[in-house]
Queue: 2 jobs
Job 1
Amino acid sequence: MTTVWRNRWSGGILAITIITAIGVAIIMPLCLWFVPTMLKWLIIAVIAVPLLWTACLTPRSLTVSSRGVVLRRVVGSLKIPAGEIVEMRRMAREELNGAIRIVGSGGFCGYIGRFRNRRLGVFTMNITEWNNLLKVRTNRRTYIFNGRVATTQSGTVNNS
């Protein structure tokens, strides 16, 4: 059985993304107009490159099947083969309490990147809303995705 979850955006993440995009749309032309040449390109690189990188990594959908988990992004995919999955379960938002971003986005286009908290340790999060959280753990990493699926060790998928 294959289950596909299309990512939805929460109101807060959508607001952060829109406000950031408007801010960049205002700052970039001003930067091009008023700032000296060398500094101009540095400012553009510092602002534009991380935002474009984040936009490219924005999750679009999550597919869970007997072959594993596939997170489709705007550009590229993250594939986790079923043989590498040690644990997959639904999780409560409270399990992310106290999470600190190590690297990545803390709201623009979602919460994307590496995070850390006491309960989970270091984990990779790719979410666009705080509901329907799915934890996927391998021997090397812990991933947090959005998805309304849970699975047992035998690989059966439950949509409860």
Note: The radius of gyration is 18 Å.
Job 2
Amino acid sequence: MKNHAFRVDHFARKAKTQGYLTRAAYKLIEVDKKYKLFQQSHSVLDLGASPGSWMQYVLKRVGKKGFVVGIDINPVNLQYIKQSTIPNAQNKDDIIFSNIHCIQNDIFGWHYLSELKQLKYKNLENSSADLYNLKCIEYGFNHIISDMAPNISGLKSVDDDNSYDLWMQSLTLSKILGAYNSNLIIKAFQSEKMKEFIASMREHFKSVKTFKPLASRDTSNEMYIIGRQLKNKQPYHCLIPPNLDPEDETVQKMFNLWDYIKQQQEQENDQCIKDLINDRKAKVTPKVDVSKSQLLSQLS
């Protein structure tokens, strides 16, 4: 118990000296060090982001061209994140706070497509914004991360079911909002439900691992599930005709091809977007226009 208490106090003190809002940041740091996930210019969606320590870490990792969106049913104080992050940042020039956004909402009732589009349009009005950082809204996030846990009822069966619902909703969002080959990190608790959930994740990710960081308490049964390389991304709802089955293999191929072509368009459109920032009258005209009928012809 003495060693356990020392370890907990160590991470708590370390968080205070390094400017992290909570010691939970070190759990994500350990996951990242082991699996080498986050890179410069990546985009991240943080589910259950409050108070914001995971957002602090990934903002430093993705750099100037990265983009971080956090959502939580509780408010996330962006000003508090700024005040805590800046004083202890090793390279303050790499932290761009216009690239971090907080949304207060319930992930089960979140109208993600309309809200992310509004976020994009809001940034279009800001001439100082680097709009290529918003590519995740069009093409999907590189990482979806979740440190969520349900309110504990004291009844194991109820708590296990509530946890499972959170995990499955995170997986659902990752299939829709994650980019092809994206990663999913989820905090889970050891149970039969966790085994069931891991089996579900293996259907959608090329690699699924579990990991218990040193920063986790010895007495806790929490584990982190890391799904790497999303392999069967679901098509965006705004692009799906009502009669298409998202699980159909042909539909999967069509929209994976759609994502690929959109990513090719991105490089050619970046200059057009920068022109729009500099000259509000400039018209953004994509150099490549690919319709669904053309995509379907590629599959035949």
Note: The first strand starts at residue 43 and ends at 47.
